[in-house]
Amino acid sequence: MLDIANLSLRYGRHLALDDVSVSVGDQETVVILGANGAGKSSLLKAVSGMVKTSGQTAMSLDGLSLLNMPPHKVPDAGIALVPEGRGIFGELTVDENLMLGAHPQRARGGEAARLELIFDLFPKLAERRKQMARTMSGGEQQMVAIGRALMSNPRLLMLDEPSLGLAPIVVTELFAALRRIRETGVALLLVEQNVSISLAIADRGYLMEAGRIVGENTASALMTDPAVQQAFLGGTTTDLS
Ligand SMILES: Nc1ncnc2c1ncn2[C@@H]1O[C@H](COP(=O)(O)OP(=O)(O)OP(=O)(O)O)[C@@H](O)[C@H]1O
């Protein structure tokens, strides 16, 4: 579904992404693993049209080229991003934040059904619909950010470090919701440093280092890969079943 080939990206003289090729199949969950500064956020920003690529980059969703697509058109193509830091509007209520996600043409008419799905996934939001977002906990704000992305009726949901700064029990709750979202048929492209829990919901994963893809395998193979264990996991795994 999402095909990225030979993606290169520069910030001035700094080559942040170097010949990166990544794909996400229909309804597939794919995780990009890598240390700080590896280029993970830049990859998601490139797909969202928020940064310009260079070189021989090819990027498409079901054959529709994403290169040169204006960023505000990307949600119309069926791609939603939950950015690092969430990007929600603190002075707006939960409902207002959610409705901001419903602007693409593909989301029109389905707002009520999507709200129902979101409140089923995150009952805490249903109880706090009129609450100002800035007064909510970090975990609840992340739920608002994911909910807002779902309001756009995406085929591909991209998440940039959704677990960042959250307590383990909240992370477990969020990832259980992500697993349910994937069961609704939405493909997920997940950038994470919490390797254990992200591999637990993923089909496949890529390892990224200094702007390059240095490994790729099924999630189960990566989970037991000694190199991954040593670099990220400290010998532990998470069971979400
Ligand atoms: N706007 C920018 N201008 C200049 N350099 C940037 C910019 N954004 C990112 N970089 C650099 O590009 C590299 C990749 O950054 P990126 O944020 O994509 O990495 P990351 O893997 O997501 O890291 P993190 O987990 O810390 O967010 C880093 O060296 C970073 O300093």
Automatic annotation (TrEMBL):
GO biological processes: L-amino acid transport
Record-linked InterPro entries: AAA+_ATPase, ABC_transporter-like_ATP-bd, ABC_transporter-like_CS, BCAA_Transport_ATP-bd_LivF, P-loop_NTPase
PROSITE patterns xref list: ABC_TRANSPORTER_1, ABC_TRANSPORTER_2
Keywords annotated in UniProt: Amino-acid transport, ATP-binding, Nucleotide-binding, Transport
Pfam families: ABC_tran (PF00005)
GO molecular function: ATP binding; ATP hydrolysis activity; branched-chain amino acid transmembrane transporter activity
SUPFAM superfamilies noted in UniProt: P-loop containing nucleoside triphosphate hydrolases (SSF52540)
SMART domains associated with the record: AAA
Family: Belongs to the ABC transporter superfamily.
Record protein name field: ABC transporter ATP-binding protein
Provenance organism: Devosia litorisediminis
